[in-house]
Amino acid sequence: MFEKIKDIVGEKNFSDNLIDKYIYASDASIYQSLPSVIVRPGTVEEIQEIIKYANKERIPVIPRGAGTGETGGAVPVDGGIVLDLKRMNKIKEIRIGDVLCKVEPGVVNNELNNELKEFGFFFPPTPGSGRVCTIGGMIANNASGMRAVKYGATRDSVLGLKVVLPQGELVSLGTETIVHSSGYQLARLMVGSEGTLGVIVEATLRLRPLPEKRAAGRAMFYRLGDVGKAVSAIITGGIIPSALEFLDNIVIKSVNEVFNLDLPKNAEAIVLFECDGNKASIDYEINKIKKVCQKFGSFRIDISDDPQEMKEIWKIRDSAFPATCRYKENLVRMPLAEDVAVPISKVSDLIVNLHKIGLKNNIIIGTYGHVGEGLVHTAFLINPELSEQWEKAKKAISEIFVLAQNLGGTTSGEHGIGLSKAPYFKKERKRALNVMRKIKNALDPNNILNPHKLMDAPDDFLTATKIRYAVRE
Length: 473
Ligand SMILES: Cc1cc2nc3c(=O)[nH]c(=O)nc-3n(C[C@H](O)[C@H](O)[C@H](O)COP(=O)(O)OP(=O)(O)OC[C@H]3O[C@@H](n4cnc5c(N)ncnc54)[C@H](O)[C@@H]3O)c2cc1C
Fold this sequence. Notes:
53% of the residues are buried. The protein has helices at residues 3-9, 18-23, 44-57, 109-117, 135-141, 148-151, 186-190, 224-236, 249-259, 279-295, 307-318, 320-325, 347-360, 387-406, 422-428, 433-443; strands at residues 14-15, 37-39, 61-64, 81-84, 91-95, 100-103, 121-122, 158-164, 170-174, 199-206, 208-209, 213-221, 243-248, 269-277, 298-304, 332-334, 340-341, 364-369, 375-382. The mean pLDDT is 95. Helix 8 (224-236) runs antiparallel to helix 10 (279-295) and helix 8 (224-236) runs antiparallel to helix 13 (347-360). The longest helix has 20 residues, at 387-406. The strands form four sheets. Strands 12, 13, 14, 15, 16, 17, 18 and 19 form an eight-stranded antiparallel sheet that branches. Strands 5-6-10-8-9 form a five-stranded antiparallel sheet. Strands 1-2-4-3 form a four-stranded mixed sheet. It has 16 helices and 19 strands. It is of the alpha+beta class. The structure holds flavin-adenine dinucleotide.
């Protein structure tokens, strides 16, 4: 059955080898399921041919970028063809005159930004995985990061897309203009569709000028409860920093121990901030943020516009992921309910109650993240071999999603739904599920593109597909 697929991409770009299947069975989530074959197309025409054949033969096709997704989005639940798009990694055009660029889906975020730097421009979403994740994966997940507080998520930088639809048709969506009010916003429909509606084969992206200058700061707080209040006051006080992050004391302890830092042990939280622009605007904004932090009880504030010192300030945040992964022997960081988001006025309630959920369920949950966007990462640290730890985690996850939704928030602020968050997403969007299913059925009547994801994912996140851990009773 797969001989035809091999003919399309050539032997070199086709694999049904068991080792490759294991590599492509997982992304950065807890899930694992083997594909039937892996293909690495090099052209749009090859993708069209693959999709047409798969549609005729009813074979699932799972688009894949770098596989850094944390929700199982690129995991082939029913096997099928994993379409690895990393070979399609050309930056096709940089048109500074129109403040845009055109790229293939496999271009890596940081590599694009390195190219753009020479022109004095950048593509703003700044995911922590920027060194590896692809533009296709970022669009499919509507990724964002530290700079979203000022520049928006990936969706805000997508002007147009070329997409191969599930029956093989190639369509051009969106425009090359910064504004357009011409009809359905179909490019936006593809943003966040997680590979279920089409394969993104080209993106036209809006660029922003690199700022003349940046300055950063860190404010230490004795009380976790004061952080959310300070953040809300900064945002509603008319300042839009280019980054506004926080870390709780579990994360502070991790980075202190793992990276030999000497952040105050008695700080319950640290707020990190950055402003960009020119000297006058930065001085004004930094000063205002400093005053707000002092008003809400910050006991120490460090500020710098020196590039080396700024690096030191951001080192805490950059180290948060690897440090929490090594918090304690036998504990593994699990990507579970890791990116709930709430309206800004509710950030304080979110942070404080997340902490209570950890304590109540006797489970370690470090919290940090893009608070300026209302988004908090929850680093679940559990021993994945113990079933009782999973039971506690499951209970805590459920409580976190209920908390976020009760605060008017959402299941996922940036990582997407995939498999792990589907039950909660379905509850949150119950009034829109019908519309989503109609769109999916209209574009993909044979359900070949990334089946069992989003609203079609199974309800039990642990048995939805196999997890990568051997669990002892
Ligand atoms: C250490 C770490 C830090 C992270 N930090 C952030 C962060 O700060 N912000 C953030 O938003 N995310 C973050 N992530 C999550 C992840 O990096 C993002 O979701 C990223 O956008 C995924 O890109 P990818 O190329 O790895 O896509 P994959 O994981 O390969 O795929 C993700 C989804 O997109 C679909 N897809 C991929 N390419 C295409 C295409 N061309 N057409 C259609 N569908 C496609 C897949 O089917 C899948 O559903 C982080 C992950 C890790 C491991």
